[in-house]
Amino acid sequence: MSDLCENNVSRRAILGAAGALFAWSFVPKFAYAAAGARDARFVCIVLRGAMDGLSAVAPVGDPDYVGLRESIALSTQGGTPALPLDGFFALHPAMPNLLRLYKAGQATVIHATSTGYRDRSHFDGQDVLESGQPGPGRTESGWMNRLLLILPEGERIAQHGALGVGPVPPLIVRGRAPVTGWAPAILPKAKEDLAQRLLDLYAARDPELGVQLRSGLDTERLAGRMGGMAGQPTAGASAAMRRVAEGAARLVNADDGPRIAALAFDGWDTHANEGGATGQLAQLLGGLDGAFAALEAGLKERWADTVVMVVTEFGRTARVNGTVGTDHGNGTVAFLVGGAVKGGRVIADWPGLRPENLFERRDLRPTTDIRSVAKGVLADLFGISTARLAEDVFPDTPDLKPIQGLVG
To answer: Which InterPro entries does the UniProt entry name for this protein (predicted)?
Structure first.
């Protein structure tokens, strides 16, 4: 499957090269806000590279699981046991914080899920996931940006819009609605006086760009309050996920900050040496678990009105490969986390892991479309109608009904 492992960072940067110096807000401006009294927050975390859902949440009750997974199979017994959820599924041992949230009714697992895409290319799979379109190649906007355009008019979201975290804002939030980008720095920043001189220069020569630059500098200052990330050395993907989540939480928690945010975490393409209860995937899942804790702590009282959705472009093969890893697959797992989540459950129309039940006799067969999950969250959290979701947010999906009861 190595021929499908594109350099998605550079290609995506080419598609989205709309500027990433400091931060950027796209124009024109539109008015939008959530309906109702709840001052809701919605954060979407995209795991790029295809997370192994059969290891993140292991179907330990399926009799065919251990035979397919061999040395990387999880077990609820032994020195590093998986964390039981409901008697059939068990959470990876690297995610004790997620287990705590699950037991508190603030986390839901959706298993055997995917988009409608089935061809196993990272680049196309990510485009389908983030654009919300039926197929690849229609990447002019992301579904979270289109969500902003249809929210009823109001002050909260209209003034502060959405946040896209990364060198280029993720496709999922790009489009006509205004988005503030934030690229967490790993190198020392320019001195404040240099930034101010640049701001003065652009304000005099190009007032519109000066406004955008000021917005970017304000975003950087806000993200850096109470101990930002500027100048900190890299400490591995796990620590980086938590630090990015801490900064995003400060922005989303602020009274004058965005209510909607998208984060993208790379590195989930585990073709070799994936590991089981410990190892490469365990470190990544531990980083994601730390990101949950950082978001909960940073959002403080806002956590009660927050939904964090975690998605990935597709899953991995059901059978372990010859390099003790897994290749590109289909069905995987998604998470909903937050104080507004009606949690404490695993939602799964489980297809089984017998060879005849696998997709093309190799992958976990998807039985739940991730767009139905997203529709359910958006309908409950923001009051979006089923018709608008099917027409504007996820085009051409009238037959994909929102899953009800995901948000309390």
So the answer is: DUF1501 (IPR010869)
Q: Which helix (H) or strand (E) holds 182?
A: strand 179-182
Q: What whole-number distance in Å separates Cα of residue 354 and Cα of residue 83?
A: 24
The answer on pLDDT for 282 being more than 50 is yes
Question: pLDDT digit string (tens) for 225-241?
Answer: 433 333 333 247 888 99
Structurally, the chain folds into a number of domains equal to 1
Exposure string of 295-321, with b = 16+ CB inside 10 Å and e = fewer, is bbebbeebbbbbbbbbbbbbbbbbbbe
Residue 305's pLDDT band, with cuts at 50, 70 and 90, is very high
Rounded mean pLDDT, 44-58: 98
The percentage of residues in the chain with a pLDDT greater than 90, rounded to a whole number, is 68
User: Which pLDDT tens digit goes with each residue over 76-87?
Assistant: 999 999 999 999
Considering the domain boundaries, does residue 281 fall inside one? yes
pLDDT of res. 158: 53
Kindly give, in sequence order, each residue whose CB lies less than 8 Å from that of residue 78, ignoring residues fewer than 6 positions away: 277
In a domain, 302, yes or no: yes
pLDDT of residue 213: 54
Q: How far apart are CA 47 and CA 244, in angstroms?
A: 14
CA distance to 90, 127, 168, 263, 299, per residue, from 314 (Å)? 20, 12, 22, 17, 29
Q: Where residue 8 falls among pLDDT bands split at 50, 70, 90?
A: very low
Q: Which residue has the higher pLDDT, 168 or 405?
A: 405
Global pTM reads 0.82
Beta-bridge mates of residue 313 = none
Is residue 131 within 8 A of residue 139, CB to CB? The reply is yes
336 in any annotated domain:
yes
CATH number at residue 304: 3.40.720
Cβ atoms of 22 and 199 within 8 Å: the answer is: no
Residue 352: inside a domain: yes
Q: Other CB atoms closer than 10 Å to residue 119's CB: what's the count?
A: 13
Would you tell me the crossing angle of helices 207-224 and 192-205 to the nearest 10 degrees? 160
Tokens of 1: 């499957």
Structure tokens at 60: 């330990």
CB 332 within 8 Å of CB 53:
yes
Closest CA to 98 of 354, 277, 253, 291: 291
Bin 240: left if φ > 0, else alpha if -120 < ψ < 50, else beta. alpha
